[in-house]
Amino acid sequence: MSFGTLLRKYLRWSDRKILLESVILWLSIDRTQKNLFLESLELLDESGLESLYLKITKFVDVTEDENSIRKGLLAKKKYTEIEELENSEKKKAQNSFNILLDSI
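Above: the chain's sequence. Below: its structure in token form.
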């Protein structure tokens, strides 16, 4: 299950606020910034919190999509490298076999 799917699963305002707090605590930022973000959550009304939650959900979706595309491209590149290596090995084996036949 992706994180974006998890974010969309929670519909209650209190659950979303807890999730946002968890996300903020999870961020790799300075402790002072974390505290400022957490304090700002207390100042937001329900519509402000909803807007922030939707923006974070969209950001997570875009980031997960980009990561999926990047992983797919890396997998395709690795597959191509393996395929080229196999073809090279087959060519070497064929050349060795041809040399063996020529020497007979």
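The CA atoms of residues 82 and 88 lie 10 Å apart.
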